[in-house]
Design goal:
Number of strands: 2
Largest sheet: 2 strands, antiparallel
CATH class of one domain: Mainly Alpha
Helix content: 40-55%
Structural class: mainly alpha
Strand order of the largest sheet: 1-2
CATH superfamily of one domain: Cytochrome c-like domain
CATH topology of one domain: Cytochrome Bc1 Complex, Chain D, domain 2
Length: about 200
């Protein structure tokens, strides 16, 4: 019985035999920037500014990337069906730029090689793997930024703006300052039970 390979397995095998990788970056930062402009003009009205899809399917998240599988699968669809008002009319370059932007939005990192309409190269770019690898690489910076935000102290609220009410953890309004600590001038053990006058503790050097 002949061995049957799935489409993705065949792509991976082809990439391995050719010395390539199934999750090469495949697009440049310039393409993603141009793709954002094109997306906002042609796609955002239905798919949302943040690719959340209020009036059409969302384009962000691992499930979406898994659904399309490869850049080739996404290109094949939007190249003939999008936008609904002018399907297939944006031109290869614009569609490729939009795909680059969608990939970058989902965490993929740009590289030096531009995305092209070559079917073999598009089929060799795994959307799930590329976006997962990009998100993993960006995770440390994201965690560091979150930690820095958490570490920032909350701004103090002047008591004048609390209408005289006690703030959590703060001193009661109008509370007098505690008197300076005092200490006996002579150890009590040497006074034969009598209480000696106290003096202010010496200032710390």
């Amino acid at each position: 019985m002949p061995l049957k390979l799935t489409y993705l397995a065949a792509v991976a095998l082809t990439a391995a035999l050719s010395g390539g990788t199934a999750n090469a970056a495949g697009f440049t930062a310039d393409q993603a920037a141009a793709g954002q402009t094109a997306y906002n003009s042609n796609c955002a009205q239905c798919h949302g500014k943040q690719l959340e899809g209020p009036d059409a399917p969302g384009l962000a998240g691992p499930d979406v990337m898994q659904n399309w599988a490869t850049a080739g699968g996404l290109f094949d669809f939007i190249h003939v069906a999008m936008p609904p008002s002018a399907p297939g009319q944006l031109g290869d370059e614009t569609y490729l730029n939009i795909i680059a932007y969608i990939m970058q939005f989902n965490g993929a990192q740009p590289g030096d090689e531009p995305l092209t309409a070559d079917p073999d190269k598009l089929a060799a770019i795994s959307l799930p793997e590329e976006t997962k690898a990009g998100a993993t690489a960006a995770a440390p910076a994201t965690k560091a930024a979150a930690a820095a935000t958490t570490a920032e102290a909350a701004p103090a609220v002047p008591q004048a703006f609390t209408w005289g009410k006690q703030l959590p953890g703060g001193p009661a309004p109008g509370a007098a300052a505690a008197p300076a600590a005092t200490t006996p001038a002579v150890p009590q053990a040497y006074t034969w039970g009598k209480t000696l006058p106290t003096v202010a503790a010496p200032a710390a050097n």
